[in-house]
C-alpha cells in the first residue's frame, strides 16, 4: 500500500512538473569518484541546478582543483535569488560561473563565483542555455524526471558527455532504449541499495523502508545514466546455472527463454533470453548483445506475435494486471503467465 501511494505521488510530480528532487552530496560523491579521469581540463555544466541548494555545484566547486577542471557553470530555472545564501525568490533566472580558487584558501568564496542574470527563464531548452551547453564538455545534473526524454535527446543532439540521474523505467522509453541498445548510453554505478533519497518540497515520503530520512523522499529504481566509459561496464557477469527447458520456459509468442533473475542467466544457452530490466545494471557489451525490449507500449518492434487463438480467453485477465497485446507471455503449469518487462539479450561468448 505504501509503495502504491509513493508511486501515485511520483506520477503526480511528473504530471504537474513538480519533480524537483534535489540530490544528496553523499550520493554525488559516491558516484562521481569513478569518473575522475574524465574531468581534467574540462568545462562542466550543471543546467538544472538551483544554486541555493545545488549539491552538484558544491561538489564541483570544492573539488575544482582536485579534478583539474577548466570551468564550472550552473544554470537553473527562474525564481532563484542571486544571493547564494538566501532562500527568497526572484523572477530572474541566474547563471553561476566558477573558474577556481584565487586566494588559495581551497574554498570557493562568494567573490570568486561569478553570478549573472540570464535574459530568459533558465530553461535548459532555451536558446540562451543551449548556447552555454555548446561550451561544455560534460553535463552533470539531476534533470526533471518528467522531461527526461527531451533532456537526453538534447544532449545526444549536441554530442555531449554526461552523467545524469534518472529512473530505471526510462530504459523502456522508445527514445532511450535504442541509445542503450546501440551502446550510446548506459547505467553508472548506481545508488546505495538501489534507491535514492532526494530533498523535496512537495510530497510526503510514503516509504516503509528503515532508511527513510526526514525532509526527504525515498525513491526506488533511481539510477545514474552516462555515456562516459567506466570500469564497471567491462566486468563480466559471473554465470553459474545450467540451462534446462523446465526451469527456463520459452515464450509462446517469441523465440526466447524467460529468465526471472539476472544472476540466474544460464551460462550455456546460445539463443535469445528475456531478462529483467535490472539486468542493465550488470550489462557488459563485450559479454552480451541487446536485441530489444519485450513490452508492447515501448514502440520497439522485436517480432512479438499476438496471443494464440486458444489463449485469447486469458487476455482480459492478464490485461487487469497491466499487460497488453504484444507483451511476452508463457504457459506455465497450464496457465497464461505474463512477466514484467524483459530485455531480450544473447550471450556473445557462446
UniProtKB/TrEMBL annotation:
The GO terms describing molecular function are: methyltransferase activity
Taxonomic source organism: Kangiella aquimarina
Q: Which residues constitute the signal peptide according to the record?
A: none
Q: Name one GO biological process term.
A: methylation
Give the matching Pfam families.
Answer: EcoRI_methylase
**Which terms are listed as keywords in the entry?**
Methyltransferase, Transferase
Q: Which InterPro entries does this chain map to? A: DNA_methylase_N6_adenine_CS, EcoRI-like_methylase
Record's protein name: Adenine-specific methyltransferase EcoRI family protein
Q: Which parts pass through the membrane?
A: none
Q: Which superkingdom is the protein from?
A: Bacteria
The organism's taxonomic lineage, starting at the top: Bacteria, Pseudomonadati, Pseudomonadota, Gammaproteobacteria, Kangiellales
Amino acid at each position: 500500500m505504501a509503495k502504491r501511494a509513493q508511486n501515485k505521488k511520483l506520477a503526480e510530480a511528473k504530471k504537474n512538473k513538480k519533480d524537483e528532487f534535489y540530490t544528496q552530496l553523499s550520493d554525488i560523491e559516491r558516484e562521481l569518484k569513478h569518473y575522475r579521469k574524465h574531468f581534467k581540463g574540462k568545462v562542466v555544466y550543471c543546467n538544472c541546478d538551483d544554486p541555493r541548494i545545488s549539491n552538484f555545484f558544491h561538489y564541483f566547486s570544492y573539488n575544482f582543483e582536485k579534478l583539474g577542471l577548466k570551468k564550472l557553470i550552473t544554470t537553473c530555472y527562474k525564481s532563484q535569488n542571486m544571493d547564494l545564501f538566501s532562500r527568497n525568490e526572484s523572477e530572474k533566472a541566474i547563471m553561476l560561473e566558477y573558474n577556481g580558487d584565487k586566494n588559495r584558501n581551497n574554498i570557493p568564496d562568494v567573490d570568486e563565483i561569478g553570478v549573472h542574470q540570464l535574459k530568459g527563464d533558465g530553461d535548459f531548452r532555451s536558446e540562451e542555455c543551449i548556447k552555454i551547453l555548446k561550451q561544455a564538455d560534460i553535463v552533470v545534473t539531476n534533470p526533471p524526471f518528467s522531461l527526461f526524454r527531451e533532456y537526453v535527446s538534447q544532449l545526444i543532439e549536441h554530442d555531449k558527455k554526461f552523467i545524469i540521474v534518472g529512473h530505471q523505467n526510462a530504459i523502456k522509453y522508445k527514445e532511450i532504449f535504442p541509445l542503450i541498445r546501440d551502446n550510446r548510453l548506459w547505467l553508472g554505478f548506481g545508488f546505495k541499495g538501489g534507491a535514492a533519497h532526494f530533498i523535496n518540497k512537495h510530497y510526503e515520503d510514503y516509504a516503509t523502508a528503515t532508511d527513510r530520512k526526514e525532509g526527504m523522499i525515498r525513491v526506488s529504481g533511481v539510477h545514474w545514466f552516462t555515456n562516459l566509459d567506466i570500469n564497471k561496464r567491462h566486468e563480466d557477469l559471473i554465470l553459474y546455472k545450467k540451462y534446462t527447458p523446465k526451469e527456463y520456459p520459452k515464450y509462446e509468442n517469441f523465440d526466447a527463454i524467460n529468465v526471472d533473475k539476472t544472476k540466474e542467466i544460464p551460462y550455456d544457452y546460445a539463443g535469445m533470453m528475456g531478462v529483467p530490466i535490472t539486468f542493465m545494471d550488470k550489462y557488459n557489451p563485450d559479454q552480451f548483445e541487446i536485441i530489444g525490449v519485450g513490452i508492447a507500449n515501448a514502440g520497439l518492434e522485436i517480432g512479438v506475435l499476438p496471443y494464440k487463438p486458444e489463449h485469447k480467453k486469458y487476455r482480459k485477465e492478464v490485461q487487469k494486471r497491466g499487460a497488453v497485446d504484444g507483451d511476452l507471455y508463457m504457459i506455465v503449469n497450464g496457465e497464461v503467465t505474463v512477466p514484467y518487462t524483459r530485455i531480450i539479450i544473447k550471450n556473445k561468448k557462446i
